[in-house]
Amino acid sequence: MDESDLDHPPRGAFCPLTDAAFPKGCRTCGAVYASADEFMRRTRPPAGGRSIKAVSDAGVRFLELYRNCGCGSTLMDFFAERRDASDAGDARRQRWVALLRCLQQQGLPPERCRAELRRLLLDQAPPDPSRPG
């Protein structure tokens, strides 16, 4: 998942480092986010800034995830790093980037390319063009 996917991440995409991370509250407006999924669904990445930062501390890898509450306040929490750091994981990411570039060279917008690749990898049927949606 890259930063541009953070507007609509898949359910369960982020796992908090501790059980105590949620519920999480905004000190500015009092909004409460009961779970990581709700936090991702009801907040947005900061405009023009980095929303995710990979961190390593004492050999432990994790993510700092920054999100904007509806009131505009920036919230941050720590999430588990799920990325496969092995050579095989690196090779999969390189293949993903190559496929993404290939689709983009065909004139498809980046967000559509990512959606089509995900659909293909998850073995999902393409959307029915005759159905509104």
Model description:
This protein is α+β, with helices and mostly antiparallel strands and 133 residues long. The chain contains 3 helices and 5 strands; from the N terminus they run ββαβββαα. The chain has helices at 36-42, 87-105, 110-121, and strands spanning 24-25, 32-33, 52-57, 60-68, 74-80. A 3-stranded antiparallel beta sheet has the order 3-4-5, with no helix packed on it. It has a two-stranded antiparallel sheet with strand order 1-2. It is globular, with a radius of gyration of 17 Å.
Q: List segments where confidence is low: pLDDT < 50 over at least 5 consecutive residues.
A: 1-8
* Average pLDDT number: 80
Major sheet: 3 strands, antiparallel
Binned strand content? 15-25%
Task: Please indicate the count of domains.
Answer: 2
E-strand count: 5
The strand line-up of the biggest sheet is 3-4-5
Coarse morphology: globular
Structural class based on helices, strands and sheet pairing: alpha+beta
Give the terminus-to-terminus CA distance.
Answer: 24 Å
In DSSP terms, counting alpha (H) and pi (I) runs of 4 or more, how many helices? 3
